[in-house]
Automatic annotation (TrEMBL):
Keywords: Oxidoreductase. Its EC number is 1.-.-.-. Pfam families: ADH_N, ADH_zinc_N. This is NADPH:quinone oxidoreductase family protein. It comes from Sphingomonas oligophenolica. Residues 1-22 are annotated as: Disordered. Residues 34-345 form the Enoyl reductase (ER) domain.
């Protein structure tokens, strides 16, 4: 369970009287999965803490394409309803269960889960929150966990990227793509970033990309090869899918690794003779299953990533902040995927 939701009122129910609001919190909720019109901002009863739990006053919530896909009921796994979107956030601990000794009231933390965080506070198991080291802004921390943990798991745990290898990042101006650019540079790789707009390519350059490619260029494969000195690439980080997957796989070197991270562009039809001819690997990256099956390793990865962020070596890009009242605009913008940088609900905005 990522959150606790009880006694939810019907959609459109009137706000509770002011004198009762101390026992309430606000969240964006739908009784059935579907388009943004199904969702309303409601006051809900604050659940009591159970053993092993903490309560966090949220400062910022990141909303991604996957969050919207899940909210619409179009993700590959369907969550239970009533449903609160939001899978990453940051805030301050305001209450802990007696059996939680290592987190204290006042600690700044990042919060992760599959859903339940598009709210002004949340109750989570202790292992779903991670203390934030100094030097990391809470708004940036809110959009750090999912993207950077995915990029690290893909490039380190799955592809085993080595210094000097070339990593081609598709969708380099998106959330995970931009994180992958930075992680690949930390690993000592030569990074080629492919993105669809000038703004997104500029963002990738700012994140450390050694070269950028227009994702819509007619001579895209030739441009990728030229950006790598006429040589094929070692690793492809692919959060796009569709036609981009085939072209990128054909750009791989012998024993290359192609990381399948997502497929908003559609599910590709890759000819199976290509992996054989190249001795190459098609590698799936399922970050949710990784967290479920290897929680200790996932937690260690996140702790290491936060240390790198604290040292200034990793940093997410925030495009815009919105108040929670503008949740419909936030979800629509995240669904489009056109922003160079992340969209954040900032609970300090009114």
């Amino acid at each position: 369970m990522t959150y606790k939701l009880s006694e939810v009122g019907a959609a459109g129910a009137s706000s509770p009287p002011k004198r009762e609001r101390q026992s309430m919190y606000r969240a964006v909720v739908a009784d059935e999965l579907g388009p943004v019109g199904h969702y309303t901002l409601r006051h809900l009863p604050r659940p009591q803490l159970e053993a092993g739990e903490v309560r966090v006053a949220l400062v910022a919530v990141g909303i991604s394409y996957v969050d919207v896909l899940t909210a619409e009921g179009n993700y590959q796994v369907k969550p239970p309803v009533p449903f609160i979107p939001g899978s990453e956030a940051a805030g301050v601990v305001i209450e802990t269960a007696p059996d939680v000794p290592d987190v204290s009231v006042g600690d700044r933390v990042v919060c992760g889960g599959w859903y339940g965080l598009l709210a002004d506070e949340c109750v989570l198991p202790r292992d779903a929150v991670t203390p934030i080291p100094p030097g990391i802004d809470l708004v940036e921390a809110a959009v750090f966990p999912a993207s950077f943990s995915t990029a690290w798991h893909a490039l380190v745990d799955r592809a085993h990227v080595r210094p000097g290898e070339t990593v081609l990042v598709l969708g380099a101006g998106g959330a995970t793509g931009y994180a992958a650019v930075q992680v690949a540079k930390v690993l000592g790789a030569h990074v080629i970033a492919s993105a669809s707009t000038h703004e997104k390519r500029a963002l990738a350059t700012g994140g450390g990309a050694d070269a950028t490619i227009d994702a819509r260029a007619a001579d895209w494969r030739d441009a990728v090869k030229a950006a790598n000195g006429g040589m094929p690439v070692d690793v492809v980080f692919d959060p796009i899918g569709g036609a981009a997957t085939d072209a990128a796989f054909r750009s791989l070197a012998w024993c290359g690794r192609h990381l399948i991270v997502g497929f908003p562009g559609g599910i590709a039809s890759l000819r199976t003779n290509l992996p054989l001819l190249k001795g190459a690997s098609l590698v799936g990256v399922n970050i949710r299953q990784f967290y479920l099956s290897q929680p200790d390793k996932a937690a260690a990865n996140m702790a290491h990533l936060l240390d790198l962020a604290s040292a200034g070596r990793l940093r997410p890009a925030v495009a815009r902040n919105y108040p929670i009242e503008d949740y419909a605009l936030v979800m629509a913008e995240a669904a489009k995927g056109e922003s160079a940088g992340r969209i954040v609900v900032n609970l300090n905005m009114r």
